[in-house]
Amino acid sequence: MPRLPVVLASIALSLTAAGPATDVITVTPTAKVATAPVPSAGDAADDPAIWIHPNDPAKSLVLGTDKKGGLHAYSLDGHDRQLVSPGLRPNNVDVLYGFQLAGRRVDLALASVGKAGKSSGVKVWTIDQADGTLAEIGDGLTFKAFDGGAPYGLCTYRSPRNGATYFFVTDRNGAVEQYRLDPRDGNTPALGATRVRAFRVGSQAEGIVADRERARLYVGEENVAIWEYGAEPGDGSDRRAVARVGEHGLTADIEGLAIYYAPAGKGYLLASSQGSNTINVYDRGGDHAYILTIDPKAGTIDDIAGSDGLDVTNERTSPLFPSGFLVIQDGKNEGTQNFKLFTWEEIASNRLLVDTTSSAR
Fold it and tell me: Are strands 278-283 and 13-16 parallel, antiparallel or unpaired?
């Protein structure tokens, strides 16, 4: 077993030896911010997404879904500053920067919403680049997916090859669809979506994320594995396994997936291991080698458990998060569910990169 390097005093680090294929390296950060709880009781909060303000990073937001209510926008100190579309029941949310809409560049939030029926599909909101206010696009406009079925997981993607913008959705039966977002200047509505690809993972899948630089797509088949696909419309269904349930402590359900970006293709793929209340970290490139496991612990803010979604940013934001942060949904909060924020430098210790140069914009 290799000798462990010195670790920052604020972090506990352990190595559990169970053979070369199952060694688990653990870091145990504590949350620095907890968002206001969602209003809905029971299993309600689900997935966060980070929006970075273009001019004042301290005004960045965490968007969080209440799948029994609406979409919430939290400031980086955890305050709930806006609720939009109450009753729409969003499940997964993601952000798309710099979309050309009605003659101007706007930031968008997209979410999978509702149950099968009239309101199900994908909803889109604009995010005001001055103050972060969200507003619905179109009067009740929801893009249908799965021929009117209910989408489950969602992520956005901008092609590094031609700049085209897409969203991916999953359903509870393991289907995946890819849609191209099309501006329709001078028309109502001003935005359209065209299905360009469909394939099957195998069984239930929610967590999904696309690498905007490497043109790769990652899907978490909840009881089986994290799969890597191509992210372009013509990439088909060829895939390879990044990690399987049972390896390095990865425990079903595999839930949220997120990417920490660093220059030259470096960085990390993060995966929520719901059954073990931990987050596995893999190399972003190459063979996606396992690196370590994040096992948050209680501090002045309580622990997390049963986590669904997560998101991460490498970018400087508020003074509390000068090197980026990780946000995780807490499935067993004291009270109704919420989201908790962790400083990236505490997670990184001396084992992970801390690099604020890559920009989501």
Answer: unpaired
Contact present, 352 and 267 (Cβ < 8 Å): no
> 283: closest CA among 308, 248, 307, 319?
248
CATH number for the domain that contains residue 188: 2.120.10.30
Residue 286 lies in a domain: yes
Pairing of strands 121-127, 104-113: antiparallel
Q: What residues contact residue 149 under an 8 Å CB cut-off, 6+ apart?
A: 116, 120, 171
Query: Residue 113 domain-assigned?
Result: yes
CB 323 within 8 A of CB 303: no
- Answer yes or no: is 320 within a domain: yes
Q: How confident is the model at residue 5 (pLDDT cuts 50, 70, 90)?
A: very low
Query: Which tokens is 58 given?
Result: 């301290």
Q: From CA 358, how far away is CA 302, in angstroms rounded?
A: 31
Digit-coded pLDDT (tens) for 23-39:
899 999 999 999 999 99
Number of domains in the chain: 1
What are the phi and psi torsion angles at 220 (to 5°)? -95, 105
Question: Other C-beta atoms within 10 Å of 346: how many?
Answer: 20
- Length of the chain equals 361
**Domain presence at residue 6:** no
Distance CA 278, CA 326 (A): 13
User: Residue 203: phi, psi to the nearest 5?
Assistant: -140, -175
Amino acid at 247: E
**Tokens of residue 125, six digits:** 């909101």
- Gap between the Cα atoms of 159 and 167, Å rounded: 11
Residue 237 belongs to domain spanning: 13-348
Return d(Cα 56, Cα 75) in angstroms, integer.
13
The structure tokens listed for 299 are 């501090």
State pLDDT tens for residues 79-136: 999 999 999 999 999 999 999 998 899 999 999 997 655 679 999 999 999 999 999 9
Contact 231, 238 (CB under 8 A): no
pLDDT in tens, 283-317: 999 999 999 999 999 999 999 999 999 999 999 99
Closest alpha carbon to 274 in 191, 351, 349, 207? 207
